[in-house]
Design brief:
Blueprint lengths: L3 E2 L5 E2 L14 H5 L3 E5 L3 E7 L3 H13 L5 E4 L5 E4 L7 H7 E2 L2 E2 L9 H11 E4 L2 E5 L8 H10 L5 E2 L6 E5 L1 H11 L21
Antiparallel strand pairs: 1-2, 3-4, 4-6, 5-6, 7-8, 9-10, 10-12, 11-12
Helix pairs in contact: 2-4, 4-6
Length: about 200
């Protein structure tokens, strides 16, 4: 078992390395674009439409690390789609995150570093002196509660004004804490990771 050690020598129990990877980590994908689909009451699958092929590939690899085989294909809109097969062991996620056809944040939901890592892979990006986490625009009732969940993890965030549903984390200390929580970027996913150097995007 590996732990993330803070600069002051203490161990962060909420970091992505604080425990081995598990299926519960996939809830982080659901904080962003992920969706659970049930097959009767016997199985469920996780799917997420993402913006870039490298993001889909990295997400699929992280899913496999957690014992959930995932494939990358194209969604009807043409964007990359990551999807697991229907699995019995994904039913608990589907039951907690779905209310009928509506995605909801489970009661008592607590975010941790491993979930935040998956959220970053699915929908995180550095911008300027901050870090953006995309929300699910079709599940607006989850947005305020996810702000609360981030704050409980020591990552205060604010909704960014604009047409897109985005949360913004600013401040060098907060970004350093995000990095501490989520660990190193998987190979190929570096563009999704927070940067302590202001990022200027080409127009």
């Amino acid at each position: 078992m590996f732990y993330s050690v803070r600069v002051d020598g203490t161990i962060s129990l909420f970091s992505a390395e604080a425990s081995g990877p598990g299926l519960a980590d996939l809830a982080g994908v659901l904080c962003g674009p992920g969706r659970m689909t049930g097959f009767g009451r016997t199985a469920a699958r996780l799917s997420a439409v993402v913006d870039e092929p490298w993001r889909a590939g990295a997400l699929a690899r992280e899913c496999r690390r957690r014992g959930a085989e995932a494939q990358v294909s194209a969604a009807e809109c043409g964007r990359p789609l990551v999807r697991t097969p229907f699995r019995v062991d994904l039913l608990p996620l589907e039951q907690r995150w779905n209310r009928g056809e509506e995605k909801v944040l489970p009661e008592g939901f607590r975010l941790d570093g491993a979930m935040l890592r998956m959220w970053a892979l699915a929908a995180g990006s550095p911008q300027g002196n901050g870090y953006l986490l995309a929300l699910d625009p079709e599940a607006p009732e989850t947005h305020e509660r996810l702000i609360t969940a981030l704050a409980q993890l020591g990552v205060p965030a604010k909704a960014q004004k604009g047409e897109e549903a985005l949360l913004r984390v600013t401040g060098r200390r907060r970004l350093a804490h995000v990095l501490e929580l989520i660990g190193d970027a998987p190979t190929g996913a570096e563009p999704a990771w927070p940067s302590l150097v202001p990022v200027v995007r080409a127009v």
